[in-house]
Every structure is written in C-alpha cells, then in structure tokens.
Amino acid sequence: MANSNYGDLFTTTLESRAEKLADNISKNNALLSKLKSKDNIRTISGGSKILEELEYGEGDMVWYSGFDTISYTPKQLFSAAEYAIKLCAVPVAVSGEDLLKNSGHARVMELMEKRIQNAEKTMRNQLSAALYGDGTASDGKAIGGLKLLVADDPTTGTVGNINRATGGNEFWRNQSKTISELNSSNILQAMNEMYLNCSRGVDKPDLIVADDKLYSAFEQALQPMARYTDTTMADAGFSNLKFKGADVIFDGGQGGHCPENHMYFLNTNYIYLRPHKDRNMKVIGGDRMAVNQDAMYRIIGWAGNMTLSNAALQGVLINSPA
Known about the structure:
Elements: H1 7-16, H2 18-28, H3 30-37, E1 49-55, E2 78-84, E3 86-95, H4 96-101, H5 105-130, H6 137-140, H7 146-149, E4 158-159, E5 162-163, E6 175-179, H8 187-197, E7 207-210, H9 212-221, H10 231-235, E8 240-243, E9 246-250, E10 262-266, E11 271-283, E12 288-289, E13 295-308, E14 315-319
Parallel strand pairs: 6-14, 7-9
Antiparallel strand pairs: 1-2, 3-13, 4-5, 7-10, 8-9, 10-14, 11-13, 12-13
Helix pairs in contact: 1-5, 2-3, 2-5
C-alpha cells in the first residue's frame, strides 16, 4: 500500500503525545485539574470492577466506671461501591492519497500532526463533557459524571451498585437544594446553606463549579465587596472566585459543560478519576491497515470511570425558575 512506510512514524508520533494528551485533558477541566493536584487521578491495573471502600458507620463507645462490663456488638462499618469500567476511543485515519499528496517527511509530519491534534481535541472535549453526565449516554456506555454522582434527586437511582432509594442507604445521598428565584440577593444565602450542609468538621467543599447563570449571580453579589481569586487555579488557566475558602469556577459559555442552572459543591477528597494504566490516552494495538481501503488507522483509547467514596459531603444547587 502507498502509506505502509509511514506506519512507524504515525504510531510513534501518537505514542509520544499520550502523556501530553492526558495532561491537556486535566488542564481543560477544573474538576480534573483539582483532582490531579490532589493525586486523585489514580490508575487501576485490572479487574472487572473499580472498587471504592466506604466507611459509613461508627463503632460503640460506652461510658463506664469501676468494673462495669464493656460490651461489644459487631457492626458492619465498611462497605464498597462498585463502578463499571467504561471505554472510549478516537480513531485517527490517514488515506494513502493524502500521504501521496503530502509526501516528504516534513509535510507528512504536518499532516499527521493536524489529524492527531483533532483527535486530541475530540477526546479532550468529549471526556470533559462526560464528567458532567449521568452515565446514560451511548446506551449507558459512558462514564457516570456529576449528574449521576451528585444527583438532582439523591433519593433515587443507583450509584456504585448501591441503591439510594433503599432505606438504610441514606448515607449514600448527596445534598440537593432548589431555588426558584435567582438573583444577587438570594444566591449568597442559598450558597451558605449548601456549603454548611456539605460540611462535616474540617471536611468542607473545596471546589464549586457553576454554569453561566449561577456564576454570574454570585459574581454580581460580590460586586460591592472585594473579590478574592486563587492563584493556583488562575495559573492553571481557570477564572475563579473564592467562597469560604473554596474555589468557585465558571464552566459555562462556549465549550462549557456544566449543566444549565446548576452549581456543584464538591469535596474532592472523595472524588476520583480511575483510568486503567494500560488505556490512559494510549494507542490501542499496532498498525491497522484497512482491508479494502488504501488507508491507515490508529486508535487512541481510554478506559476507566469517575468514582465517589462519600456522597453526603457533595451537593448541588439548582435554579428552577417558576
């Protein structure tokens, strides 16, 4: 085939960009950037499920004096959430005709660079969007994002193979609050209530992600006051404000993915991205020559899921106009 001499060049070019692609995806999304800074992007090495251990109960403590009996009743204090491994891929293709028209090492590299850059942008944008999804896209083959993990109605649905509607599983429900009127006067009160609902001692939300409307209302509420930004997030390229120490990030506008009328209060100590070590923005397999076409293919693949180990410390504020 006319393009067979370029197989190694194509593959090595893709392989050399794999780490850069993974890094660019984290830079493209405020949640992933925060998870990366806290080492919460943790690879898995195998298995049919991704497990997150949950501590949801307390043991017994008794007050006593002298020779009082100190009794112990065994309790189940730990469980585990199970998350399925989801897969996605972006193919990169170059036809033999294109390679002939762009012959010469420099021109071939330029052609491949353009195709690879497009594949990187596609995967970056689609994965960033999936982080906000509910896991039902592509007939349930997509990862479960914030719409699933931090649900609008936390009393329904199954997350990590734990049914939130079942009695006794209240610990696995996130916080949720709906406001019918959004303005600069009531946004701070609603945010205060949600922040407190998501706090437990020193465990507090450290990232708040909002769409256009809620971020704008919050920003307007701060207009008469001094506004504080976090240099770490600013250096990462995200415009942000601060609320009680948490970064408030805008992920709306063109290319934004936060669901409309939503503001998420996240404690990222308990949220993880769990990619497979062998499928984390890597080329799947080797040369792929079309059987009945003069074309060369490579596939960039990713496998894993987004997981949660504590739901009660996460929350969502929803604007639902009457």
